[in-house]
């Protein structure tokens, strides 16, 4: 009687030791996961500045022929993309992403605006821009202006664009342009930048976090 | 006499059969999932997307894709270099033996310049894909409104 009992006691102890070892291992493992997780969650896909940057004076015109300047960036969040309407691949794709961000942020109690500033003011009139941007979302705003007005804004943001000629006589040209999306806060300051590849899901998540941090 | 008469006929049939077999084998290129992204009404530049497959055991190249509905067309590759989006012309799109290339938003695409008629969601356009063996494939291509952020078309049912 006693032998089986001792045996089973030994087995119980052994089991206990094994469980303890496994539990410790699992504990270390899960602790590592827990320790790793906040670092991953904290990481924004956006580049955010420790202190939002002031925007130097610029003056452009929106697709309703209203002045679009520093004051237009005030009192609302603005997602701003630089593109052109004679762009059938990158620009429609980006405007579709912006529309998806708009849908995802519908519940946010903030005034959020989505703007496309053209890097091709020669061809992109306010009327043309109006048709292009509102095709993707009726609330989107197109912005154009003089070359000088455009440079006032793009230079300070580090935005580059360049005209690329097509075959002579075709009249067609393409524009190389910075593909990032810029975020301005309701104080009209340059808050963050989202670099390609652009994901509506990530940008919406980042925006909610940045909103929390500013409140 | 009889057999002499039959020989040219046999030779002719053989040539005919060979010709028919070649013709029936058709071009090595197969086009799948083709669509043109609908653009706002005044747009004069559109993009087409598709998968191009080489069904043969020899590599080939797509030399051009044109359309009777557009004034001009060019195969492009969108690249983002140092944060700057550029569209680079692709003179020849190489397809390895049994290989394929995918034209999709933000990457390879067919630029279509100067539409000769207004094109709306639901319309159909003819595209002709030419390869460097001299063959060409003609495909009906739907114009679709792009609804998803990923750039894929909304397909009608
Ligand atoms: Cu292109």
Q: What does this protein structure show overall?
A:
The complex is a heterodimer of chains A (215) and B (157). With 215 residues, chain A is an alpha+beta fold. Chain A folds into two domains: 4-36; 49-214, Glutaredoxin (3-Layer(aba) Sandwich). Helices cover 43% and strands 24% of the residues of chain A. Chain A is built from five helices and ten strands, in the order αββββαβαβαββββα. Chain A has helices at residues 2-42, 90-104, 126-136, 147-157, 200-214; strands at 47-53, 59-62, 67-69, 77-83, 112-118, 141-144, 161-165, 173-178, 181-184, 190-194. In chain A, strands 1-10-9-4-5-6-2-3 form an eight-stranded mixed beta sheet. In chain A, helix 2 (90-104) packs across helix 5. The radius of gyration of chain A is 27 Å and the shape is globular. The termini of chain A are far apart. Residues 1-7 and 27-42 of chain A have low confidence and may be disordered. By secondary structure, chain B is an alpha+beta fold. Chain B has one domain (27-147): PCu(A)C copper chaperone (Immunoglobulin-like, Sandwich). Chain B has one helix at 2-25, and strands spanning 29-37, 45-54, 60-66, 70-81, 84-89, 93-95, 100-103, 108-115, 124-131, 136-144. In chain B, strands 1, 2, 3, 4, 5, 6, 7, 8, 9 and 10 form a ten-stranded mixed beta sheet that branches. The longest helix of chain B is centred in the N-terminal third of the chain and has 24 residues, at 2-25. Chain B is globular. At the A-B interface, helix 2, helix 3 and strand 8 of A face strand 2, strand 4, strand 5 and strand 8 of B. Strand 8 of chain A pairs antiparallel with strand 5 of chain B. Bound molecules: copper (II) ion. Copper (II) ion is lined by residues 76, 87, 109, 111 of chain B. Residues 76, 87, 109, 111 of chain B line the site of copper (II) ion.
